[in-house]
Specification:
This protein has 302 residues and is α+β, with helices and mostly antiparallel strands. It is built from eleven helices and 14 strands. It has a four-stranded antiparallel sheet. A hairpin with a 5-residue loop joins strand 4 (54-57) and strand 5 (63-65). Helix 7 packs antiparallel against helix 8 and helix 8 (217-239) packs antiparallel against helix 9 (242-261). Residues 156-167 have low confidence and may be disordered.
Length: 302
């Protein structure tokens, strides 16, 4: 068994020119491809080729190189064609370069030639064109939603979300990183935020103990005030003076809020037992049925 690099869409690190190489070229030409002009950004004229780690992908599973040549179909003969020969002089073929922009997002990428020809990252799926030829002929606009391919990185950080016909391409790998065994605490925190679990404030005895451990004048004063108010509330409850007990509740809430705002107590949400169990039992699910992973992927659609 041997490894075959594919797709062989190369881009020069110096001048950004792109070239879809063949395996025979790669093996015998040493990067000096005959149909590519010399690099104008390198004094030696040699290109510094890098394999492009982005491809066109279709939800049906087909993958094509990120090429500036757009596929289409002759509706009469059913043969595949390459649209737009370009605007270079007669007898010449456009030599495209790849502009990646600075945002890191595919919407800012495009191919361009010195002649002024510019092509966005757009491609049609060859198989879908053939299968949906009748629909494409009568209603091309609507059918394109099922035919068009999308640029994705093949570093396994993208997926196709069938229900809304969207290709989710994560701008970072944070969602994937959270699936690691050593990221369970971060994963739980993200899930609590995702599902908007309410804040959980510790009991009053725990708050008082925590505030005294802070060993700051403000925290000690707050602990004493909370404890005295709790004692007063207990005394009033024992005496049956319910109205006075109710009047003290806003004061107690104020003490608790001050302790949280100051950062002396943790007022974050507390994970329920069922959620903790689901997180720890993720390994029993196939990846595409993992409810935790699916929840994070749903979030990517928002």
């Amino acid at each position: 068994m041997a490894y075959v690099p594919d797709p062989l869409m190369l881009t020069c690190r110096k001048c950004s020119v792109v070239h879809e190489a063949k395996l025979t070229e790669l093996a015998y030409d040493g990067g000096n491809f005959k149909n590519v002009s010399r690099c104008k950004e390198n004094s030696s004229g040699l290109h510094e080729w890098r394999q492009l780690d982005v491809v066109f992908a279709h939800w049906s599973g087909r993958v094509d190189p990120l090429s500036p040549f757009r596929k289409d179909i002759d509706t009469k003969s059913g043969k595949m064609t390459n649209q737009f020969p370009g605007r270079c002089d007669a007898g010449q073929v456009c030599e495209f370069k790849l502009h990646k922009g600075r945002s890191g997002k595919f919407r800012d990428w495009y191919f361009y030639c010195h002649c002024g020809e510019r092509r966005e990252l757009r491609q049609k799926d060859e198989n879908s064109l053939r299968w949906l030829l009748d629909r494409y002929t009568t209603d091309p606009g609507e059918t394109l939603r099922e035919i068009n391919m999308l640029p994705v990185s093949y570093r396994a950080n993208s997926l196709y979300y069938v229900q809304s016909e969207q290709m989710i391409s994560y701008e970072t790998t944070r969602h994937i990183d959270l699936m690691a065994d050593d990221k369970i605490a971060d994963l739980i925190s993200s899930l609590l935020d995702l599902y908007e679990y309410p804040s959980h404030i510790p009991g009053d005895d725990a708050i008082i103990k925590t505030l005294r451990a802070v060993n700051q004048p403000g925290a000690m004063e707050l602990a004493n005030g909370l404890q005295e108010t709790l004692k007063a509330q207990a005394t009033l409850e024992a005496s049956g003076v319910q109205d006075a007990v109710e009047m003290l509740k806003p004061k107690l809430d104020s003490y608790r809020e001050q302790a949280q705002v100051k950062g002396w107590i943790d007022g974050g949400p507390e994970a329920p037992e069922l959620l903790l169990r689901q997180v720890h039992e993720r390994s029993s699910f196939a990846r595409k049925f993992d409810p935790i992973r699916l929840g994070l992927e749903h979030q990517a659609l928002r």
